[in-house]
Structures are given as C-alpha cells and as structure tokens.
Write a structure and sequence with these properties.
Two copies of one chain form a homodimer. With 142 residues, chain A is α+β, with helices and mostly antiparallel strands. Chain A has two domains: 1-83, Winged helix-like DNA-binding domain superfamily/Winged helix DNA-binding domain (Arc Repressor Mutant, subunit A); 85-142, Ferric-uptake regulator, C-terminal dimerisarion domain (Dna Ligase, domain 1, 2-Layer Sandwich), CATH 3.30.1490. The first copy, chain A, has six helices and five strands. Chain A has helices spanning 3-13, 20-29, 37-43, 49-61, 104-116, 135-138, and strands spanning 65-70, 73-78, 87-91, 97-100, 120-131. In chain A, the strands form two sheets. In chain A, strands 4-3-5 form a three-stranded mixed β-sheet, covered by helices on one side. A two-stranded antiparallel ribbon of chain A has the order 1-2. The longest helix of chain A has 13 residues, at 49-61. Bound molecules: zinc ion (4 copies). Chain B binds a DNA duplex (30 and 30 nucleotides) through residues 16-22, 37-38, 41, 47-51, 53-54.
DNA sequence: CATAAATTGCGACAAAGTTGCAAAAATAAT
DNA sequence: ATTATTTTTGCAACTTTGTCGCAATTTATG
C-alpha cells in the first residue's frame, strides 16, 4: 500500500481528520535518512511550526513515527508499519546514519529478554555508534 | 574505586580541573534512575544552569555520562566505566526505567553486527519499551 | 604564597517546544 | 450540493531548554 493511503487509513481508524498538513509531514519523512525536528520543520515550509509539532505528536501516539537518539540530537523516522523494521548505526565522526537490515535472531533475543523481566514489549530500539568505513582512516582519537 | 576518585582521575588524565561543581554533578547522577537535564539542574541547585550544561557536555566528551532516549525526553546516566554496562526497559505507562543486567551473548551479537557493516563499534544502546508488570492490568489500549 | 590558566556565575540571548483562540478546513447531516 | 458541526490550522504570545561573552572566582603550577 502507498504510504499516503496508509496514513489515511490509520487516521480514519482513530477518528482523526485527513488534512493537507498531515500529508505534507508524512511526505517529508519519507526520505531515506531520519530527520531532526528542525530539518522537518524546514521541509514543511508552508506549514506552521506548531502544526508540525502537533502532527508529530499525533503520529507518535498512533505509532506512525518514532524518535531515535542519533548521537547528540534525536531524529524522527517513519515507524515499522511504514518502513521495514530496522536498527541504525551512526558514525560518530561524519554523523551519517546507516540502516541495518533486520536480523530475526536478534529480534527473538530481545523478545525473550523482555519476557524475562515481565515486560509486555511494545517496541524497541538499537543504536550502534562508531566509525564508518570512510571515517576510520581519517580519525585517530575520538 | 569510589566514583568521586575515578572522576578525579579521568579529569586529570585529560588535563581538566577537578572542581566542586563537577563533583556535585557527578554526585547527582549517582542515584539509581537516569535523570532528565531538568531534574539534574534541580538536584544541583547551588550550581548555575550553564555550568551544569557545560559539565554534562564535558562528561559526555570524556565518556563519563551517556544520554539515552527514555520515551519522550532524553535522560542522562553514568556510562559503563562508572556503572556496570546495561540496557533499559521503559514502561510506556508509568515511565519507570528498569535496568537490564548484562547479557554476554547479546553483546557478542551486536559486535558481530557492527563488523558486518564495517563499523568500528564504540558504543551502543538498547531501549525496550512496553508495559511493566504493575501497569499491564491497568492499561487496555495505549 | 604568588602567578598563570581554567572554570564559574551572571545576564543576555537564541533555539526549541507549548498554548489559547479566532479563522479555515474537514467531516457529518440535511 | 448546502449547511451545520467538529476538528484542525495559523498566529502570536509565551515557557522551557540550551548557548555565549565576559568579569570575578577558583584551581593548578611552581
Ligand atoms: Zn563517518
Ligand atoms: Zn528490532
Ligand atoms: Zn509501568
Ligand atoms: Zn550492551
């Protein structure tokens, strides 16, 4: 299903209106890389800051987007129902975020871990940080 | 080694001064639960906000503290050299953060994963979110 | 203890995020 | 299709969070 159609469906399911602003926010998030809130606001430049914030808050409640800690600031990306489920590796030097393809064993592992702590697992996040292949020669310390 | 002594050592190793403010910030972070920046500022109430921010920034550069995404806001906690390495499960309903004891198999797995992507892994984070044992009966939806 | 270097507090500022409310748009009803 | 009802939007004012320059204080050095 097309992401925009899927958005429409999720919004209606929850009694929320389908609006131009919300569609624009979704569209802005469809790129490859996760975005900071600031970047997102810029990409939605016909839409008021407050509206972007309100849309993101709604999307987070409806599990349409998720926020992840990428180095210093948090970033936003579409969540599993819209993208494939995946994790990230962030380069500490150049800041690039590389998506990692899903690993069923790892997923199973996390599930068992949650069970061991009597947690009903709703979502999870793994963030690796280090140096990407390109930056490894460049950097000595850090 | 006592955390305060360890702080002194790390600071000196990097040519940084050992000051009352920095010791106070470390002390405030020694409690069990990770703290938001706001909470930390409150617990350091003789110290200026700007100084707390500057200390945290320094501590982050020296890998004394790490920030983690706990639900909505980020939180700070002492990093692996000061606490045992561990991960977290956050309850979506009551917000409590439960530390998970280290699992060597999982750690090895992450290491291999990074290698597969040509990443030199420097650190990593796993955040589980869901409902804790206490909140499971309370909540139907969410 | 005196000197040099680094850190702190302060105040002013910039950026990020929130809120109330009237106008506009979306849905529901006729 | 029009109108009525409900929800959302933009705006502007505001709070919170985070940053910066600089003089006063503290820390390190000898
Ligand atoms: Zn890189
Ligand atoms: Zn996963
Ligand atoms: Zn709970
Ligand atoms: Zn680990």
């Amino acid at each position: 299903m097309q992401p925009s159609a899927q958005l429409e469906q999720v919004l209606k399911q929850h009694g929320q209106s389908v609006t131009a602003a919300r569609q624009a926010v979704l569209a802005a998030l469809q790129g490859q890389e996760p975005l900071t809130m600031g970047e997102l606001v810029i990409r939605c430049n016909d839409i008021d800051r407050a509206t972007v914030y309100r849309s993101v808050a709604l999307f987070e409640r409806l599990s349409i987007v998720q926020r992840l800690q990428a180095g210093w600031k948090y970033k936003l990306e579409l969540s599993d129902a819209f993208h494939e489920h995946h994790h990230h590796a962030t380069c500490l030097h150049c800041g690039q975020v590389v998506p990692l393809s899903e690993d069923p064993k790892l997923e199973a592992y996390l599930h068992d871990l949650a069970v061991a702590y009597n947690f009903t697992l709703r979502k999870h996040q793994i963030e690796l940080s280090g140096l990407c292949a390109t930056c490894q020669p460049t950097v000595g310390s850090l």
